[in-house]
Specification:
This protein has 2 helices and 17 strands. Strands 2, 3, 6, 7, 8 and 9 form a 6-stranded antiparallel sheet that branches. A 4-stranded mixed sheet has the order 11-15-14-13, with no helix packed on it. The longest helix has 27 residues. Keywords: Signal.
Length: about 300
Amino acid sequence: MNQTKKIGLTLFFVLFFCCSFSTDSYASDSGSTAREVAQDVTESQWQMMKDYFSQTPVAATEGYTIGTDFSPDFEQSCQYHERNEYNYTGSAKRIITKITSSDPDTLEVSYSNHTIQMKRGKGNNDHVLVTIEYHLEWSFRVQEKVLGTCWSVNDQIGSTGTFTDSIDVTVEQIQFTVTPKSTNRIELNLYDPKKIDPLTFVDYSGNTGPVTSYMQEKPDDSKLGATQGKFVFSDTKYTQAVVIPFTVVDTTPPTGRLKDPLTMELGTLPNLVDLFDYEPYDNDWQTVDILSSFDFKQLKKGTQPIQLILED
């Protein structure tokens, strides 16, 4: 009887020793699993950030900014987080090291350890890809589950190399807008579309690339007062026809040129038109009045200055 009891006791200790040995044999696997846990723990807040930017269009107004805050470095804690045969208790971080925009002219990106902001620029791409580089850091106490019992194994403290993630951000388009000025004036009978750029008659914004224009309907410049013309403006994406109001004015003086030299018989009264190289004219196509401030019959022999006035 006594001998049988001793044998049973010996077998019990052998089995216990084998179970204890298995605990140490799995401990090294907990290190590679810790990286996966760090990814899991920080994923929820990270995904919320991505969803915000992918689902929030950036307005077309230059300088408009959207942004979101998060816990510093996306740090999150966990308690008994189960992964494979391990439980992890501790915290993990997802630390951003670089953010780039595929089109900084359209969308400028800035960040700190607790916020990301995106600012609308002058560009006009409707989608911008934002690329984020980050790495993980973690510190966990680890337990291994063996036959229903949790055993403490090696703590896991570590970090990773660089990971890359991206967000497709929707950007509202800046509309090409052309607005006529309210002070446009053209001279009576003198408007020439080849000499005056139609862009001087409008204010424009939101254009992609250079703006070109041409006249579709000429403004009526044959009479004084209000009139209008129709012009077409284009950038590299859009074309817009615009009716532009004008006021026709007459600020152009009559034109004439005296003969040089000018000779006449003493004591005669010349036809004033004959004193010019050509008949004086004006832009209103009306006859030009020629006025003199002195009496030609009283001119003396010799060279004399004369002054004539042209009046429309």
